[in-house]
Amino acid sequence: MTANMPALDGDGPLWLQIRRALARPILDGSWPSGAKIPAETELTERYGASRMTVNKALHSLAHDGLVERRRRRGTLVAERAQEHPVFEIWDVAAEVRRGGADYGFTIHEREIVDGGGRHGGIDGLDAGTSLLWLLVEHRAGAQPVQLEQRLINLDAVPAARKEAFRKLSPGEWLLREVPWTEARHTILARAARGTTARLLHLAPGSACLVVERQTWDGETPVTFARLWHPGEQHRLVGRFEPRKY
Amino acid sequence: MTANMPALDGDGPLWLQIRRALARPILDGSWPSGAKIPAETELTERYGASRMTVNKALHSLAHDGLVERRRRRGTLVAERAQEHPVFEIWDVAAEVRRGGADYGFTIHEREIVDGGGRHGGIDGLDAGTSLLWLLVEHRAGAQPVQLEQRLINLDAVPAARKEAFRKLSPGEWLLREVPWTEARHTILARAARGTTARLLHLAPGSACLVVERQTWDGETPVTFARLWHPGEQHRLVGRFEPRKY
DNA sequence: CAGTGGTCTAGACCACCGC
DNA sequence: CGGTGGTCTAGACCACTGA
Question: DSSP assignment, residue B85?
């Protein structure tokens, strides 16, 4: 491993560069669970940083569950390091593909609307703001796994107006193209009715797990998504430790 | 504020002591949102620690959303510092009381069972292990807000066998009495049927938000709880920032 | 422009635990 | 026993931003 250590990108604080350099191969699977990460002293030499700086990067990775650290044994890539925790942005396409199924999506509705219309608005925006409304069905093979109701703030993301979303779904496209600094998830249960039930192949009244996600870039709301999942199929998982107080 | 700064408890690493000393008045509300926390240099003197150590405590608090830090402005107690994030243990009793309502609970079933019975077992335990089964209704005023199906590992928590849960609900009692090192939440939607629907005052088939929580102390499973909430009433909220990679 | 946090260094001692 | 992470220090320079 020491032969081809990932390089720094020169962007931002040194400890974050080191964090990113180590996180990338962990998250994309190049370094499998249980793989040993070089000791602090070795990283110190490799990246020309002091031990405190290397320690801050590793401590941060451990705090977020990507690695486990034990004295003497060293720093190892954690089990479930690639798992999507509840409190992060995840994308259904990646989830389906990781499960080994074919991912596909269909855009059923696409429309420029304003925040006062029947699709509602985005929290924190005037009713007059131009929004792109999308209704997207996501499938694993032939099976619908998520129905996405999405609003995009066209003032914040003007490129979305002409984007065809041919290869990438709107969710993937936004994750890749649009910067964001904060997100909020609200999780609730609701019965599927009408179009929602029909597109998910559910009987009307079936329980769905609904995740509402709004993201901001600084103070500017970027996008709002309401993601419907058949309740019995979809589960969100979070692992955590006691608060340190 | 500087006059009556919270004292250290002398337990564990210095930076965690400082973290706890500052977290306590934030979480119990003594320091309201927006209150200013003394500057690093001042805490350095107050606690006789180096600036790096104080910085580590404050950085950790900021990472967990209890404070917000800006250059020049200083460190302020965060908005929503007392909010319950998705990925922590919360207790419905505290939630109801914070909302200003009267909290009450009723234990409808109580039984010593083994892991092979109709109530199921706890993940990671043999079918023969003795468990305490409880079915608990939680109310805000007269309104049921949560139905709790709970299993407690009596090998890990022998005191539960004779505990009457008179003043504290089982959830509160466990949080207070029993140490744990790891927890897992699984969130799903499910239709309420039979007893569940009846105790929650819902029509059969209504969508419920279900949180399953299992906790461990080291490698030992401690307790499993399945918490049912009327889907339209209960929401879980999580705020977060982009992954740093 | 001055106070605040952000970061970094070089070195130190200690605790744990696999070999 | 020795390698590893855990922690701590004293000091330094920089970046941001509100008064």
Answer: B
Strand ranges inside chain B, DSSP E? 36-37, 67-70, 74-77, 103-114, 130-140, 143-153, 182-191, 207-217, 220-230, 236-240
User: The domain A2-83: what is its CATH number?
Assistant: 1.10.10.10
Residue B42 burial (CB < 10 Å; 0-12/13-18/19+)?
A: middle
The answer to whether the C-beta of B75 is closer than 7 A to strand C is yes
Q: pLDDT, tens digit, for every residue of B92-113?
A: 887 787 677 899 999 999 999 9
| Entry field: residues in chain B | 245
Q: Give the 3-state secondary structure of residue A180.
A: coil
Q: Pick the closest to residue B39 from B10, B70, B66 (CA basis).
A: B70
The sign of the CA dihedral B164, B170, B173, B177 is: positive
Residue B141 CA and nucleotide C18 C1' are separated, in Å, by 57
Q: Which residue has its C-alpha nearest to nucleotide D9's C1'? A: B50
Question: Where does chain A hold its CATH 3.40.1410.10 domain(s)?
Answer: 92-230
Which B residues 204-233 touch A at CB under 8 Å?
A: 205-210, 229, 231-232
Question: Residue A209 and residue B186: Cβ atoms within 8 Å?
Answer: no
Range(s) for CATH 1.10.10.10 in chain A?
2-83
B35 Cβ contacts chain C strand, under 7 Å: no
Question: What is the torsional sign of CA B165, B171, B176, B177?
Answer: positive
Helix (H) or strand (E) holding A25: helix A14-27
The bases of strand C with some atom under 7 A from any protein CB are 2-12, 15-18
Least confident of A229-243, B8-22, B89-103: A229-243
Q: Would the CA dihedral through A50, A53, A55, A58 be positive or negative? A: negative
Give the residue carrying structure tokens 């389906």.
A96
Q: How far is the CA of B17 from the C1' of D12 (A)?
A: 26
Is the pTM of the predicted complex or chain greater than 0.85? no
Interface with chain B: mutation pick from A79, A187, A200, A239, highest number of B CBs within 10 Å: A187
- Single out the residue of A22, A221, A219, A45 nearest to residue A122, CA to CA: A221
pLDDT mean over B67-94: 75
- To the nearest whole Å, the CA of B215 is away from the closest chain A CA by 9
* Burial degree of A231 (CB within 10 A; 0-12, 13-18, 19+): buried
Who's near B204: CB < 8 A, 6+ residues apart? B191, B192, B193, B194, B197
User: Can you give the distance from the CA of residue A41 to the C1' of nucleotide D1 in angstroms?
Assistant: 20
CATH (residue range A92-230) = 3.40.1410.10
Of the listed ranges A53-57, A182-186, B188-192, the one predicted with least confidence? A182-186
